[in-house]
Amino acid sequence: MQLPDENIEYNYQRALAQPAEAWTPLAELQSQHLISTDRFDAFKKVAMDVRGVVGAERELLNPPAKLRPLHSGFIDLPQKLLDQFKRKQDASEVGKIIRISNRLREDVDRIVVLGTGGSYLGPRALIEALCHSYHNEMPAKLRMGKPRMYFEGNNHDNDPLQDLFELLENTCVDPDLTDERWGVIVASKSGDTLETAATYRAVKAEAAKFYGPKSPMLKRVIVPITGAKSKLRELCRAEGYADEDVLSIPEEVGGRYSVFTPVGLLPAATVGLDIRAMLLGAATMTRRFLEEPFDRNPVLQFAAVNYLLTEEQKKHTRVTAVWTRKLEAVGWWYDQLLSESLGKTGRGPTPVTMVASRDLHSRGQQHQDGPRDKMVNNLVVRTVAHPAVMVGMADRNEDDLNQFSRKGLPDLMESAHKGVTDAYAEAARPTADVLLPALTEHTIGQLLQMLMLATVVEGRMMGVNPYGQPGVEAYKSNLTRHLKATPNLPKGEVRDAAKGA
Ligand code: PA5
Fold it and tell me: 429 and 374 in contact (C-beta within 8 Å)?
């Protein structure tokens, strides 16, 4: 596989206060709100030491109690999957994912992806970043057999699910026609997440109505992805699934770190994305993290800059500004990664995703002029995939745009980015840029792996365990208690639509 030089970089100079020759109001603000270069230089050694700690954790087969849970399996997983594919081809995990994705593409025109948290945001981030922006609306011929994708099972939200059933009932009438068939990918590592489990039961019942309750198609078009010892695994066994038709999330990989397991890879492969290029990007980032010095190591740079701004400069709100809406779901994915990994024991930055330039017209004022509690990480893609939409000349120039007639939307976007980062810099508000040369499987692989590694490094810098999410357990057990206390409806009765939640 030949790939262009597509390394992503982190440009953080605007987060540092350069030594000032004379006192100015701006120099004063910078000294208060940015990281001093002396502090930053001294911190590089700390970052390198933490890299050693995170690297060593990969080798721990039996971690001490204070390190548990330890789910560092995601770090080496991309390279392991690639090596195994090279050795075993079709018999490898990647081979199996490709086989099942080909089968789904041949069998169905629509897929409902069920999952929540890491089992939802990972696949959604990959698909929105890399597929056609109107993928589901494209005619089958233009999609070249790649199924439409719908995301459910991430909520207890009645009406959107009923809307989806209505859509399926009206567009999928004849199970003998490929372009009217639909399938399901259900991902849950624990198998006991109620949002996903309850939706799965309802979706399975719909599928049984469509294909017939005993149809062999059901096991072909419904693909479970789960952990080794989950309730979903038990359910699959009880329903007679062959082991090779159930995909696995390795125990040593945590939910929000699972994008490069079948959770992300199967939906991605099913819509025709090159999952090997994705894994190669992720493996390259792991290698850069483990081997490169600080000045060529975007993981350590990102972790150090964001740690120092949060912990020492009190920038507790971390804005991810994505400069293409194709990366909005990557922003949501990072929001979850950061919240569940570092939001512990009263600490941790609060993540917010915004799409630029769109949200500059809603949040821009607050970021420029509101509380000085923010760090903005821009995710910038340097090239566009399609020819530029030009402003063009027009006979009527009342809008005064003829002066820009030979400029295109990418020029407008670049000027907006320069404009807003200049404005923040002039007010000593910290920003930095993650630069992607292009939006491809390879760069997305690098980006997601970089953010996962940086989150773990940042957690270790803070002294917070980046794995596990004990805070969510309280919500889950309270939910079950309330649900058990809710009176059952009489057998066969369906809750009245007007009664609401
Ligand atoms: O990071 C995590 O572990 C969580 O966000 C999970 O991904 C989420 O709760 C879904 O869990 P499961 O895949 O077990 O249904």
Answer: yes
Q: State if residue 317 touches ligand 1 by the CB under 6 angstroms criterion.
A: no
Residues 205 and 161 sit within 8 Å (Cβ to Cβ): no
Q: What is the pLDDT of residue 18?
A: 87
Mean pLDDT of 37-61: 97
Domain map of the chain by residue range? 4-69+278-464, 77-273
Catalytic hit among 93, 206, 328, 340: 340
Q: Is 316 a catalytic residue?
A: no
Confirm whether 137 is a catalytic residue: no
Interacting residues of 44 by C-beta distance below 8 A, sequence separation 6+: 294, 300, 304
Please tell me the predicted confidence (pLDDT) of residue 216. Answer: 96
**Range 60-74 average pLDDT:** 93
Residues 6+ apart with CB under 8 A from 173: 180
Q: For ligand 1, atom 9, which residue shows the shortest CA distance?
A: 117
CA-256 nearest atom, ligand 1: 1
Confidence of residue 5 (pLDDT cuts 50, 70, 90): low
4-69+278-464 and 77-273 agree in CATH topology? yes
**CATH number belonging to the domain at 4-69+278-464, selected among 1.20.1070.10, 3.40.50.10490, 3.90.190.20, 1.20.140.10:** 3.40.50.10490
476 counts as catalytic: yes
How far is the C-alpha of 32 from the C-alpha of 427, rounded, in Å?
Answer: 11
- Report which residue type is found at 68: R
* pLDDT attached to residue 497: 67
CA distance 215 to 213: 6
- 183 and 149 Cβ atoms separated by less than 8 Å: no
- Quickly name the fold that domain 77-273 has: Rossmann fold (3.40.50)
